[in-house]
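Following up on my earlier message about 4-nitrophenyl phosphate. Here are the inputs again, as you asked, copied directly from the submission form:
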Amino acid sequence: MKKVLCVCLGNICRSPAAEGILRASAEKRKIPILVDSAGTGGWHVGRPPDARMVQAASRRGYDLTTQRARQVALSDFYEFDYVLAMDESNLADLQDMAPPNSETALHLFLAFSEVTQRETPDPYYGGASGFEHVLDLVEQGAAGFLDFLEDR
Ligand code: 4NP
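Thanks, got it. Here's what our run produced:
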C-alpha cells in the first residue's frame, strides 16, 4: 500500500483538505492508500484545521474534523512513498530538509493533474472564495494523482 503525505505551511488549511479529499476519493475508487498531512511550520501543532476550511469541505461532503496539525518530521522522509507539497515554497523547504538517503518522491500536489497552475495558493489571509478555490484545485489534483497511481 502506497503512503502519501500532503504538506503545506501550517497544516490547517490546504494539506488537511488534500488529506481528506485524497482519502475520500481513494476510498470511492477502491485504491488502497494511506494518507496523512503535515506542515513545514509548527505554529498550529495539535490544533484542528481552520474552521473556514472545515466548513467549506463539509459542504462538499468531506469530514476534516478529526484531523490535528503536526509538523513534518525527518522520519516522514523514510515512512512515506510520496510527499506532495502544496506550493513551491513548501517544496523547496522539503527539498532542504530531505535526508540524502531518503527515497521519498517529492512533488507538487498539482503536478499529476490537468490543472495548468502548479501551486495551490495559501487561503489563510483571504476571503471565502480562496477556500473554495483550494478545494476546486485539490479535487482535481487528487483525481490526477490517483489516475497516476492506477496507471503505474
Ligand atoms: P496552510 O495555511 O499552510 O494552508 O495551512 C496557513 C495557515 C497558517 C499560517 C500560514 C498558512 N500561518 O502563518 O499561521
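One observation from looking it over: The longest strand covers residues 2-8. Hope that helps, and feel free to reply on this thread.
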